[in-house]
Amino acid sequence: VASTPPALKIDASILSNDKQGMKDDDEKGKRYGRLQITPRPLEANHVIDLPKQLLALSIGHFRDGSPLTVAYKYYSKKGFMYKLGDAIASVVESIPKGGILIFVPSYSFLKKCTDAWNPTSRSRHWSDEVLEDDLGRTIWDRLTESKTRVILEPNSGGQEMFEEKRNEYVQRIKGRGSCVLLAVFRGKMSEGVSFNDDNARGVICVGLPYPNARDRSVEAKRAYNDEQRRLRGRTNLLPGMEWYSQQAYRALAQALGRCIRHAADYGAVIMMDSRHCDTGGARVNGVSPAHRNLPKWMRHHMRNLVSSSGYANYQGTNVVCGGWPGLATEMARFFAEAPIHAASVLAKQQDSLKAAKERAEKQGSSNHYFDGRSGKWCPRVIITPQTADPCTPNIKKPDDLKSTDDDGAGSATGPVIISASPAAMKTPEAN
């Protein structure tokens, strides 16, 4: 019987290893419970003390107790836009000062919100639905009374318009102490802009920012992933629907990151949608199914707003009880304690920096030099002028170590700092 040629054996081994790798990748995806399968996501903890500097909360019901789910089928439902605006305004009013970033799923939804909440922007086709509270205030009135102004992220105008709105927001906070910015997931305001300190004491994420399901590129990508898994066995690719969900959580993670920008920063992150809420399901490594796709630093610190009557359904989870009044109480507690802790963190950083500067001044900045040949930092050798060898390489006489005679001429009484590489310092015998 003819044996299999070596080349074929190698190919068979490669195929076998490839299949095993796919199986291992699939197992990794199940084990870590993440949407991405390969490569394994690079994740890290946060630099802050999360329980003391971050209030992360999911809200799944309106103030009247009805479910809060931001989906297209509810947009035109009577009362939905007012109840959503009422919930957002209540959160904004509970944050005492600073800027508030509010992210919504799309520019079209942003336009729908402004039409519903701001009477001056309504089109002539607006319905006769009453969107005012018992005091006759619109949602826009409540937002401006609490935070002086509401600024909208522009959908056109290019970089110049974007810079103008961002600067207007920052300057308003500097001058008046607070402002509201209504922006869009995947927009310029949600990615790559640092809203540190008072520029973002609160971030409100409304809904889940799924891509447009009817977009041709989205449809093609979902179909491609499903086809590759079915026909080619590429289990290292996500199923189309999971890939689609992953895009939403990536956009959400970018928006969440606008709040905490350094070790002494603090703020509140509020996610408004029932799909963000822990329903008491089975946990994996202590993480609720509703939170497993959030960034690593947030998964274990999310809390759910529940009414006292609904607390029995959340036994064993991290909750804020008392419904919306309980939210106001928890916000007041957090924003009373967080600034104190953040100030102590900043003070420690300043003390550490001061100590480091003192050590550097005491030791001298010229005690070491970098040797390019060895790739190491090497200590400088300080010798007296009497023992200095004129043939020693790289002799330097810093100005601060020279002494000057009355006639202005430099004398040779000061020490000489020699910076020689390890190779140059070797004796002839060693070479």
Outline the structure in words.
- With 431 residues, this protein is an alpha/beta fold.
- It has 12 helices and 15 strands.
- It has helices spanning 6-32, 50-53, 72-75, 80-94, 107-117, 139-147, 158-176, 216-232, 240-256, 296-299, 323-363, 422-425; strands at 54-59, 98-104, 150-152, 178-184, 202-206, 267-272, 302-305, 319-320, 368-371, 376-379, 381-383, 395-396, 403-404, 410-411, 416-418.
- The strands form 4 sheets. It has an 8-stranded parallel sheet with strand order 3-4-2-5-6-1-7-8, sandwiched between helices. A 3-stranded antiparallel sheet has the order 11-15-12, with no helix packed on it.
- Strand 3, helix 7 and strand 4 (178-184) form a beta-alpha-beta unit.
- The longest helix has 41 residues, at 323-363.
- It starts with 5 loop residues before the first helix and ends in a 6-residue tail after the last helix.
- Residues 1-35 and 394-431 have low confidence and may be disordered.
Summarize the structure.
This protein is α/β, with parallel strands linked by helices and 431 residues long. 40% of the residues lie in helices and 14% in strands.
Low-confidence stretches: 1-35, 394-431
The shape is globular
Helix and strand content put the structural class at alpha/beta
- Content of β-strand: 5-15%
Largest sheet: 8 strands, parallel
Side-by-side strand order of the widest sheet: 3-4-2-5-6-1-7-8
Which bin fits the share of residues in helices? 25-40%
Kindly provide the radius of gyration, computed on alpha-carbon positions and rounded to a whole number of angstroms.
Answer: 31 Å
Straight-line distance between termini: 64 Å
Counting H and I runs of at least 4 residues, what is the number of helices? 12
